[in-house]
């Protein structure tokens, strides 16, 4: 049964207008894509920084590379022209077994110091994140004092602590723990104990930077995420491995990269300990070996270039991962 009245008029279908199209208001017109010309303002602001980097870093690096291909010594300092020898300096260094000993020793020293520093720095960062505010302030001030002390002063103090006659370390080991063999023990004569003292000094001065960097990263981890993981039954170790470490991984990678670079080119701590009576040839690292080359500027430049290539090779994995993170 139809609900429409039979006498109702059926409306005629709407006929579209045949006249010219009505103008579209300017507010509703689609915006035309304009080609944005590159502005010179931001690029011009980068010019002073690029010039400073080129002068402060670029020129010494180029000068070092040029010296490594020349015969440049004390005579050239008084006006004698430098002779171009090509790869002769590199062949002389890389054919010397002692150079490879120094390289292997430096890599091992760097690996041990970087690993110990990262572990202790990460543990202290977690401790800062967990303790109450008074204890956290005391720990932060202590770390700042250790970090802010000049390298030479810190090395001298540790040298006194490990002194064979008046050192506190020997006294504690001999009198407190009853180790009679440590009475009058010289820590700097044997290479193994020498590197132990150097590791203590280097780690002591590097841990504060790692601690503060990782502590700042831990503050960015959302509390809600940790609480959710805890409600799901994750323990403290599982939360650290599966929640905290993946979130702070970019900071962890950068700090590890910097630590490897710093530990590979360590110089002051080892040099001061060597001057205190350690055998130089048995304790040389890359930095002190370059220093020992003395007036042979071309050989020192070649060795410094080898050290630069080694640093880039050791940090290539971290650099690749950091660049991959920036592309995501």
TrEMBL record:
It holds the Pfam family BPD_transp_1. Keywords: Cell membrane, Membrane, Transmembrane, Transmembrane helix, Transport. SUPFAM superfamilies: MetI-like. It is a multi-pass membrane protein. Residues 1-12 have a biased composition (Low complexity). GO terms for biological process: transmembrane transport. Residues 1-33 are annotated as: Disordered. It is found in: Cell membrane. Residues 13-24 have a biased composition (Pro residues). GO terms for cellular component: plasma membrane. The keyword Transmembrane helix applies. Its main location: membrane. Belongs to the binding-protein-dependent transport system permease family. This is N,N'-diacetylchitobiose transport system permease protein. It comes from Cellulomonas marina.
């Amino acid at each position: 049964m139809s609900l429409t009245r039979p006498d109702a008029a059926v409306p005629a279908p709407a006929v579209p207008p045949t006249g010219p199209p009505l103008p579209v208001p300017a507010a509703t017109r689609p915006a035309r894509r304009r080609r944005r010309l590159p502005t010179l303002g931001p690029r011009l602001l980068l010019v002073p920084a690029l010039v400073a980097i080129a002068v402060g870093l670029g020129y010494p690096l180029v000068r070092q590379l040029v010296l490594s291909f020349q015969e440049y010594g004390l005579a050239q300092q008084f006006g004698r022209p430098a002779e171009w020898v090509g790869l002769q300096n590199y062949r002389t260094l890389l054919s010397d077994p002692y150079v490879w000993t120094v390289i292997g020793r430096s890599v091992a020293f760097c690996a041990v110091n970087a690993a110990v520093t990262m572990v202790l720095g990460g543990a202290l960062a977690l401790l800062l994140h967990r303790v109450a505010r008074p204890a956290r302030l005391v720990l932060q001030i202590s770390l700042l004092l250790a970090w802010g002390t000049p390298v030479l002063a810190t090395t001298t103090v540790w040298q006194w602590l490990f002194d064979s006659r008046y050192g506190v370390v020997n006294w504690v080991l001999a009198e407190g723990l009853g180790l009679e063999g440590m009475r009058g023990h010289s820590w700097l004569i044997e290479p193994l104990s020498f590197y132990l003292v150097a590791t203590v000094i280097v780690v002591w001065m590097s841990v504060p930077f790692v601690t503060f960097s990782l502590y700042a990263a831990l503050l960015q981890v959302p509390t809600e995420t940790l609480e959710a993981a805890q409600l799901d039954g994750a323990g403290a170790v599982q939360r650290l491995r599966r929640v905290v470490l993946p979130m702070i991984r970019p900071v962890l990678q950068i700090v590890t990269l910097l630590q490897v670079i710093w530990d590979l080119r360590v110089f002051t701590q080892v040099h001061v300990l060597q001057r205190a009576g350690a055998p130089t040839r048995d304790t040389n690292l890359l930095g002190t070996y370059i220093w020992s080359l003395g007036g042979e500027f071309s050989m020192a430049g070649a060795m410094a270039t080898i050290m630069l290539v080694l640093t880039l090779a050791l940090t290539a994995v971290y650099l690749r991962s950091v660049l991959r993170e920036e592309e995501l």
